[in-house]
Amino acid sequence: MGRLGSLGAALAAFAALAVLGRVLPNWVVFLTSLAFAKGLVALGLVVLMRGGLVSFGQGIFYCAGAYAAGLAMRLLEVNDAVVLVALGGLAALIVGLVIAPLLAGYRGIFFATLTLALSMIAYGVLNKAYVLGGSDGMNLHAPSFLGYRPPTPEAASYALFLFTSLVTAIAAALCRIHFDSMRGLLSIASRDNEIRVEYLGASVKRVASINFIISGGLGGIGGALAGLALGHIDPDFAFWTTSGEFVFLAILSGYASVTAVFFSAILLELVRSFSSQYFPNSWQMALGIFLLLVILFLPEGLGSLLRRRIRPRAAPARIPVESVE
Amino acid sequence: MQLAATIAIDGIIDASWLFIVAVGLTLVFGVLNILNIAHGNLYAIGAYTAASAVGWYYSGSGPELLGYLVMLGAALLVAVAVGPIMERGLLRLFYKRDEVVLVLVTYALFLILEDATKLIWGVDPYYAYEPYGLLGNVSLGGLSYVGYDLMLVGLAAVTGILLWLGLNRTVTGKVVLAVIHDREMSRAMGVNVTRVFILAFTFGVFLAALGGAFTAPKISVQPGISITVILLSFAVVVIGGLGSVEGAAIAALLVGLARSAAIHLMPSAELFIVYLVMAGVLALRPEGLFQRATLRKI
Q: Which pTM does this prediction carry?
């Protein structure tokens, strides 16, 4: 698929979702909005993972986005979802810019642990920051959409779902385009062997920083959307189990397919809500077993299933002709 | 001055059990290359088993001091029952995979064990207070300390020294060090790496359970303790340098002191001071305090 193809597919997916959102029961619509929001964060992680880095602290962006949206709503009385989500993405982007130089030299397990430490610091600070609601967090009310105020709670839920789907579709298409671009392919190359990439004349550090900042922005957008969908934010957004969930989503979907991330997110939310309904005391166990089974039997993630079906034979990789920067 | 002494002694007491747990985590990482998130659950299982065993023992009329042996026995029981099964039955299946995938596998184990503990022991807290008062109180610099707490410091020191001697002065220990250094080369030299894996992992479980068993009398054993412990010991291990026993000792002291300083001077910082120390150390020494040089493989 070319660039236009990706955008077209995204628009088609959005149209299909818009129709589906009308038909499906309200709880599915809510669950899907939340799953897409989390999927966006996981997509950011996939961007990083293509470059061989796994962050166990994606929660820091998730909470930065959510708290930026919450604060803007509370202090600046901004009510528009578009502005709120943009602010969330921007706030996380800034956090990313600040911590990227600190993290640039780290790889593998050290990168993972340092990101975890940073997000846990954020968690500790948020818990004690009474201005931001402390451990109780804060409530968000239903937003408006470019001047449109949904009259009923159902309409609000559908409107948020539409908006989330639109953001998700655009982000997915842009990521696909990024993945197939020169820089995106360089990520895969650095993952395989950084030294070779350096000898070929590209900067691994630059690739890693850009990926990190993209993942930050996506994390913030996801956090703001999740905050709006849930109507409540608290320090748990930065807790390590939240970050662990994003790693899980990213591993579950694998890094081959963008669409798979969102399918995985929906699957995870479904597994979670069904297991918490049917095994209220052991849903964590159900989730853990599910996770183990996926890692054991689908080593390349759900994305490998999608890809295999679409392209039965591996097409020869298209090598870009432009010169390496 | 008085305050500084209090902070130091509290910090050392805190560091003692933390060292026992964290050194198990670092050993497992050193040998098997697994950062075991479920280590905190093994601590919790050790604490629960010890609390149950202590409750059973003190309802009889055995000599009181033997309660400590019962706790030790509980930790051994957990290690033998859980260690080999977990390593052979589950972790083994993932050795060929990326080390981050292994972290995720242990995260799944963490979720499973968290609920399993609740299913076995319920959600009500357990108290095993009997052993705590047995050693009386000790006066140190004008302050009174519970003898049991000081005994824990001794236990940590003995554990550390035995582990160091075991690794550096025995043949088995040297074989373990060889596997840590280069797994493939050890195998080529005829070392039974599989056995070393089982041994090291089981010993790691034992250390987690030992830490749990001997802190059980100090705390109320209830759901959630595993999370606190894994977060702390994780920080200790990373600060000390993954896989380093000496590093774990220094880092446990550092974390213990930082925590007790925070509790005495700035209680609201207790939650994140540990991670602040960790980020600080990592920013200066990317691979922790005691990381060995690694080969850059092209």
A: 0.85
